[in-house]
């Protein structure tokens, strides 16, 4: 029973929560003005994270790893296109985002589709793909650090997406448990770090909850102005 719970139920729940994690920013993207608030680096690292895990899932033949990352990759591409169109078009940091995206995809494809399967045995290829997943997943979890730094500086956590943070925490916990159950450090290691990252985000959300409520009406006025300008143009 325990084996079935840890080996089947937990990863199935993890897959479902992962899909929810990828869907959680959708509501924000349905409102034009809130697209400006979404961290471009989060969208870009989501692409790299999903792509690397799809390759790893193929290497280790784990359907639970592959399944959530296919829709995750599709959604992250859509988020990135929208962020680029609405929030990064005139951003002076765009060249850095472009470099991260292009180099990240190139590195994943080079390692996981060329070097690992062609030059290494199966075990070594899985190990190399696993390290690639760790790098990309840590980037995905660490990408909100710039946002967290601004939260502390401004004493406001409005920019932290609550649904994304909750989903990240639950998702990280489930995959950590599953990784321990199948004794795969590439699964439980970075996901445990993800739990810590999500916990910090939620802690800041709680600490600055009062100031966020005070700022919300002002932000709504600002967003309404942006939407009106968009319609007028």
Describe the structure in your own words.
The chain has 233 residues and is an all-alpha fold. It has 10 helices and no strands. It has helices at residues 2-23, 26-30, 40-60, 63-86, 94-119, 122-142, 145-154, 162-181, 185-207, 209-232. Helix 1 (2-23) runs parallel beside helix 4 (63-86) and helix 3 runs parallel beside helix 5. Residues 220-233 have low confidence and may be disordered. The N and C termini lie far apart (61 Å). It has one domain. The longest helix is centred in the middle third of the chain and has 26 residues, at 94-119. Helix content is 84%, strand content 0%.
Per-chain topology:
Blueprint: H1 2-23, H2 26-30, H3 40-60, H4 63-86, H5 94-119, H6 122-142, H7 145-154, H8 162-181, H9 185-207, H10 209-232
Helix pairs in contact: 1-4, 1-8, 3-4, 3-5, 3-6, 5-6, 6-9, 8-9
InterPro entries: SWEET, SWEET_rpt
Protein name: Sugar transporter SWEET1
Membrane topology: Multi-pass membrane protein
